[in-house]
């Protein structure tokens, strides 16, 4: 049954079949057919897009899930959007459940804020609206000069905990680092559970170096400074031994985060929790990138189950590791598309979401 007004066209901009699955699910929920578009790679690896139906005066929604080749994924999205723009579409909404390069949203030493570049390219290509989910930093929305709807996957993950973990009342929500404590607190308050924070583990490059804390020189250099000026140096940080703030003994530990890619920190956290007496360990994340040997590391680790949503296709990883489970979030994306197309309020999809969520 069609749940929308006329003039709606949905395209999937992926050339890889496994990446089109989410688009098909969304189209089925809306009761519409996927629009006819041909996306493929030339022999010289250039991306070519051919729109094969009229989009003049229509609301176009371009659904793009990130495949293993993220740069090709970006070009497919940009060229599809631009093709719709030059074909006189009335509006073009990008649906990127996982926003690529979202971890590069802060300045490194002599690097760049790549997320800002991504936003500029998408707006320049012709996007008039963006639907995404659980941005790595909510402030990324400020990089765009178009409306951005940052949906949340937490209701689906919370529902999974309540329905699929029988004794979840004996659980504790765990942040694997202080940076994840706010997300863990949000889960704990909604489930009426306790919280634990792992502190002192070796931090990755993003959380430790991204904001320039390693930029000051380790020794005093006065060659470029006026002799009368004595600029105090920043004292280098010294990480304390690993500690767990909170009781996990005899409890189920549920580690929550937004992205699970390099699983080393999750595996280390699971080992620490096991040593502290946790008898079962779950990992919950919105985006399951699971690069490289992540499935093998998860299979060999103390983690009992990894639960991610289908914002990113990971069927191959599930075959390699039975511990990986998937939660379908196509329902909320389909509802967002329906409301935007019909001119309805989006506030229903953000009910009970606080400013710090």
TrEMBL record:
A GO-annotated cellular component: ribose phosphate diphosphokinase complex
Keywords for the protein's UniProt record, in alphabetical order: Acetylation, Nucleotide biosynthesis, Phosphoprotein
Matching Gene3D superfamilies: 3.40.50.2020
Pfam families on file: Pribosyl_synth (PF14572), Pribosyltran_N (PF13793)
Annotated InterPro entries: Pribosyltran_N, PRTase-like, PRTase_dom, Rib-P_diPkinase
Record-annotated Ribose-phosphate pyrophosphokinase N-terminal domain positions: 9-126
One Gene Ontology biological process: 5-phosphoribose 1-diphosphate biosynthetic process
Molecular function via GO: ATP binding; magnesium ion binding; ribose phosphate diphosphokinase activity
UniProt function note: Seems to play a negative regulatory role in 5-phosphoribose 1-diphosphate synthesis.
Record text on subunit structure and interactions: Binds to PRPS1 and PRPS2.
Similarity field: Belongs to the ribose-phosphate pyrophosphokinase family.
Protein name (Swiss-Prot/TrEMBL): Phosphoribosyl pyrophosphate synthase-associated protein 2
Organism: Merluccius polli (Benguela hake)
Gene name in the database record: Prpsap2
